[in-house]
Amino acid sequence: PGSMMVAEGSSTAAAPTAAGEGGKALHELYPANAFMELTLSAESGGEKVSGIVHCTDEISNTVVLRSSLVYTTLSSQIRFVGAATVAERKVLRESGEDGGEAAAEGEAGPTAADLEEMARPLPPPPTKKALEDREKRALKMAMEHMKHINDSATPLGQATFDTLLKACNSVEWVDGTAIVVLGEVRVDEPYGPEDCVLIRPGKTERERNLAMDSLNRVKKIIAHKG
After folding, report:
1. What is the pLDDT of residues 120-129, one digit of tens each?
2. How many other β-carbons are positioned within 10 Å of the β-carbon of residue 12?
3. pLDDT band (50, 70, 90) for residue 19
4. What φ, ψ does residue 85 adopt, rounded to 5°?
5. What is the pTM of this model?
6. In which region does residue 202 sit, left (phi positive, over 0), alpha (psi from -120 to 50) or beta (all else)?
């Protein structure tokens, strides 16, 4: 086959059964960042696959395609295609061309935004240290969560604790089943607004006002928790 450059229409050629064709290297037959459609051989199912050529590997005779995913939060998927399984290849759009309608007549092709998204470089794989740090953070979060679970508390008590924790952040269990909020307000069973008391009323007027604000806030949260 001749040149793979596209002017109008698409370029179609029978694919090689091994790396290279007419003396061309694999990366020349499958140019990086070109949007291609590959038809697999009948022995490989005859499937048609398309996507941006991410890279090629001469040693394994493999073409790596990237394509957009539908109905998922992931941006793209990677597919490895053995060049020996490709019966036909078609360049729908060369690298660097604008989006719009596909070069192939009658076919709807990717837009410029689609091509840009699919050609976006993959993030580097996480390092061993990054994975270890992630594991440590997950373990720490799990241990923090376990501290909030009280086997001695009633379901109502645990639900009250969880509600106060979401609202006030600084909440702990004391004396078995009592709850202390912000180090200032104690909530005892049966965990109603009337069961809230100040631990430290405060010495100055300003401290007393702040303490009363905390108490009233906790009472309001408990009153509306159901």
Report:
1. 656 677 788 9
2. 14
3. very low
4. -95, -5
5. 0.43
6. left
